[in-house]
């Protein structure tokens, strides 16, 4: 059933929200409108770990969101599901008469108090969460699951979340600091997670959520010319297993680029006991060739110097003689465990003075002060807790490279 939001019902909701009661402060929802065409399923944890208070807080958030965001002209359809052990569709996407009807349906959603099986709920949401609203072909709008939880899952979430994403669902997470890491694992990116400290802070997330619902992921630098060099710490302080994680990460990032001599050129430098150009900017002119060469980059061991590696890039990689193109934006992305970065600030600034942007990705318990100096005055630094978490920061890296923060 298609959603029908009556002008009378919506206007009545707005008026009641805006009229202050005598002697008390009334919170006025922000004036928003979901103009993008999207199907949104709110997925509420109704488990003992979330607690009754947390569950009621999540329901209040969804109610305020729909009251503030849906209008007669909205192109968005909304649904609500709750879960503990099993997923229950309280309001299938789009199956409500108007906003007041949707709010009444939300009021009736019960608190379960059972186990927190978020992985199972995500899998079920992917299979049946969008019901009759799931149109096909070009007529199908973007489908988004917004997970609200304050409790860590008691089952595995990575597999079900990946399953949902491969079925074309865009996942967003809203929760407390205690579940931030799990929400990043579910959504695949810190950029898709909203964390709140208290109830009012939760309601302050409404404009941000609306923006995320209507924004589209960047397609990478598919049409933007760029000379890009990845610089990997291959020293003993990183170790071969973590170096392999770095290789996997840069391979994944490379998939976002159109690699050819007219658009994006990619080079790779590794450093440890020595500094080595794995391949230069003009060595491989197709993406498959770059991906193969990244897999073959050597782990070096020994003691690394990020400063020496950056000077190597300045003198022997990011030069016209080695394939760098005049007038094309240029960037170096440094991935390091932090040791050996103490001497890198001056060489990094030398690159910047020559028009090359430098982004630092620091992993683990790194030497923060040394990396901040390396990141420079623009503070171009991404901190990652562990090598296994690198994949969660791909969007941030691509956003920096392609979204105007670098290469101006």
Protein described:
With 408 residues, this protein is α/β, with parallel strands linked by helices. The protein has 2 domains: 31-214, von Willebrand factor, type A domain (Rossmann fold), CATH 3.40.50.410; 226-402, Rossmann fold (3-Layer(aba) Sandwich). Helix content is 35%, strand content 20%. The chain contains 14 helices and 12 strands. The strands form 2 sheets. Strands 3-2-1-4-5-6 form a 6-stranded mixed β-sheet, with helices on both faces. A 6-stranded mixed β-sheet has the order 9-8-7-10-11-12, with helices on both faces. Strand 2 and strand 3 (87-91) form a beta hairpin. Helix 2 (51-69) runs antiparallel to helix 3 (99-107) and helix 4 runs parallel beside helix 5. It is elongated. The chain starts with 6 loop residues before the first helix and ends in a 6-residue tail after the last helix. It holds the Pfam family VWA. Residues 39-213, 227-401 form the VWFA domain. Keywords: Disulfide bond, EGF-like domain, Repeat, Signal. This is von Willebrand factor A domain containing 2. InterPro entries: ECM_Assembly_Org (IPR050525), VWF_A (IPR002035), vWFA_dom_sf (IPR036465).
CATH class of the largest domain: Alpha Beta
CATH topology of the largest domain: Rossmann fold
Strand order of the largest sheet: 3-2-1-4-5-6
Number of helices: 14
The sequence of SSEs as H and E is HEHEEHHEHEHEHHEHEEHHEHEHEH
Task: Note the quaternary state here.
Answer: single chain
Which structural category do the helix and sheet elements fall into?
Answer: alpha/beta
Strand content: 15-25%
- What is the CA-atom radius of gyration, in angstroms? 24 Å
Number of strand elements:
12
Largest β-sheet summary: 6 strands, mixed
How many independent structural domains? 2
Helix fraction by DSSP (H/I, runs of at least 4):
25-40%
Mean of residue pLDDT values: 83
Cα(first) to Cα(last) distance is: 49 Å
- Any idea what the CATH architecture of the largest domain is? 3-Layer(aba) Sandwich
Give the overall shape. elongated
Q: Superfamily at the CATH H level of the largest domain? A: von Willebrand factor, type A domain
Poorly predicted regions are 1-32, 133-138
């Amino acid at each position: 059933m298609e959603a029908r939001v009556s002008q009378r019902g919506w206007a009545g909701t707005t008026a009641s929200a805006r009229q202050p009661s005598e002697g008390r402060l009334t919170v006025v929802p922000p004036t928003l409108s979901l103009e993008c065409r999207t199907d949104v399923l709110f997925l509420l944890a109704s488990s003992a770990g979330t607690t009754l208070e947390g569950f009621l807080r999540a329901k209040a958030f969804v109610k305020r969101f729909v009251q503030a965001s849906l209008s007669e002209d909205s192109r968005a359809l909304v649904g609500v599901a709750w879960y503990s052990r099993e997923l229950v569709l309280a309001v299938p996407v789009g199956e409500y008469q108007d906003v007041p009807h949707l709010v009444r349906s939300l009021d009736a959603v019960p608190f379960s108090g059972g186990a927190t099986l978020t992985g199972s709920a995500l899998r079920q949401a992917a299979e049946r969460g969008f019901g009759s609203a799931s149109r096909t072909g070009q007529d199908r709008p973007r489908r988004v699951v917004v997970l609200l939880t304050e409790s860590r899952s008691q089952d595995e979430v990575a597999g079900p979340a990946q399953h949902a994403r491969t079925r074309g669902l865009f996942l967003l997470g809203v929760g407390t600091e205690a579940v931030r890491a799990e929400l990043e694992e579910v959504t695949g990116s810190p950029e898709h997670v909203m964390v709140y400290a208290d109830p009012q802070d939760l309601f302050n997330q409404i404009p941000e959520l609306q923006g995320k619902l209507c924004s589209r992921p960047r397609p990478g630098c598919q049409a933007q010319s760029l000379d890009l060099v990845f610089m990997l710490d291959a020293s003993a302080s990183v170790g071969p297993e973590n170096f392999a994680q770095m290789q996997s990460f840069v391979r994944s990032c490379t998939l976002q680029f159109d690699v050819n001599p007219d658009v994006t050129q990619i080079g790779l430098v590794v450093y440890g006991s020595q500094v080595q150009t794995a391949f230069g900017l003009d060595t491989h002119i197709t993406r498959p060739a770059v991906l193969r060469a990244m897999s073959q980059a050597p782990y070096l061991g020994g003691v690394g110097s990020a400063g020496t590696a950056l000077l190597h890039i300045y003198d022997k990689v990011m030069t016209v003689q080695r394939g760098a193109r005049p007038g094309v934006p240029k960037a170096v992305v440094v991935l390091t465990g932090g040791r050996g970065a103490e001497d890198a600030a001056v060489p990094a600034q030398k690159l910047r003075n020559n028009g090359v942007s430098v982004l630092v990705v620091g992993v683990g318990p790194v030497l923060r002060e040394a990396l901040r100096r390396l990141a420079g005055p623009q503070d171009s630094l991404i901190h990652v807790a562990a090598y296994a978490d690198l994949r969660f920061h791909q969007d941030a890296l691509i956003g920096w490279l392609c979204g105007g923060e670098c290469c101006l």
